[in-house]
């Protein structure tokens, strides 16, 4: 049932007089008055009072936590050596020894000196610590690396039980030996992303280091880090003298997004890129990558009408002389 005319006029007059929207007002008699209420339904009597007040908006809930505070705490966690239980063993930059020089040293030095050299090499290794629980939570690679294998059945021998307790050696020692191609700086950037989901100084990283981090993210299945590095390379590192290096890296590191961006850049700057000696030298290592570039170039060529064969002045060849089998191209009249 709708309001009576007098009751509705009361609400409208009050809202207009006080410069408020009628929908923002709440009306009370004994209980809150609904839009369909009338004096008859609420049993108003002469002299009864209707209370009017402005409807209060629901206050938004307080912010649960500050994101910046969370990222700051996660970065501070990287310096928490007390609770770290995983170690990355990384080769330092200045410890790379040429293979020929190392062979000569082995021939000239005796056994004692060679053992001392081995000890010195071990001391030169850089150890970067991290939390195993953070690593396993962020990527399936470390989750599988640190997973403990199921013990074998009771019928198997004790030696088999002993060998099947862990799936990988790293799950027991919690030590990851990093490939010599990666520097301690690369591992530090990788850990910063794993802990805080960002790299604060990514703009200061050079192209080669970004490609190394891209390789690392592909090797350790860090999909989000891979996407971040690809985006940074596309936005701020793609130039005529660098596109060939990045395009070749897409083949090695399965970077499809970066590959498409490189092809688009090559098509937009075709003359400059083709005339660059760096592009020519890089493509010698990846000749099959020229095929997508050729296909993209072919798509840019507009398809014109088919060329018709021009007629010559001599039309003697069009005579309807029967051929060797007696058939004629033009049927004869009966």
Automatic annotation (TrEMBL):
Protein's UniProt name: BTB domain-containing protein
Superkingdom of origin organism: Eukaryota
Region of interest: Disordered: 98-122, 304-334
Listed Pfam families: BTB (PF00651)
Matching PROSITE patterns: BTB
PANTHER family attached to this UniProt entry: SPECKLE-TYPE POZ PROTEIN
Compositional bias per record (Acidic residues), positions renumbered to this chain: 98-109
BTB domain mapped to chain residues: 127-203
InterPro entries given in the database record: BTB/POZ_dom, SKP1/BTB/POZ_sf
Biased composition (Polar residues): 317-328
């Amino acid at each position: 049932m709708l309001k009576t005319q007098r009751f509705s006029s009361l609400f409208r007059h009050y809202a207009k007089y006080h410069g408020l929207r009628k929908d923002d007002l709440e009306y009370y008699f004994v209980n809150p008055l609904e839009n369909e209420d009338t004096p008859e339904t609420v049993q108003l009597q002469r002299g009864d009072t209707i209370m009017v007040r402005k409807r209060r908006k629901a206050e938004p809930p307080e912010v649960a936590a500050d994101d910046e505070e969370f990222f700051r705490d996660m970065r501070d966690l990287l310096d928490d050596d007390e609770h770290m239980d995983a170690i990355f063993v990384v080769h330092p930059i200045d410890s790379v020894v040429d293979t020929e020089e190392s062979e000569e040293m082995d021939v000239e030095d005796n056994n004692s000196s060679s053992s001392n050299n081995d000890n010195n090499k071990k001391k030169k290794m850089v150890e970067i610590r991290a939390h195993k629980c953070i690593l396993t939570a962020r990527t399936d690679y470390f989750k599988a690396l640190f997973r403990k294998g199921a013990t074998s059945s009771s019928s198997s021998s004790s030696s088999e039980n002993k060998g099947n307790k862990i799936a990988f050696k790293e799950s027991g020692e919690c030590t990851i030996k990093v490939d010599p191609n990666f520097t301690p700086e690369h591992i530090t950037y990788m850990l910063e992303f794993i802990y805080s989901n960002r790299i604060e100084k990514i703009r200061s990283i050079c192209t080669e280091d970004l490609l190394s981090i891209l390789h690392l993210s592909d090797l350790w299945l860090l999909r989000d880090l891979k996407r971040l590095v690809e985006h940074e390379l596309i936005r701020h590192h793609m130039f005529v003298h660098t596109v060939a290096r990045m395009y070749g890296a897409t083949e090695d590191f399965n970077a499809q997004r970066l590959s498409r961006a490189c092809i688009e850049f090559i098509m937009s700057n075709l003359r400059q890129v083709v005339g660059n000696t760096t592009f020519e030298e890089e493509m010698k290592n990846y000749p099959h990558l020229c095929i997508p570039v050729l296909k993209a170039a072919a798509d840019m060529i507009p398809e014109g009408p088919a060329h018709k064969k021009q007629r010559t002045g001599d039309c003697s060849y069009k005579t309807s002389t029967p051929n060797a089998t007696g058939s004629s191209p033009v049927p004869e009249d009966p």
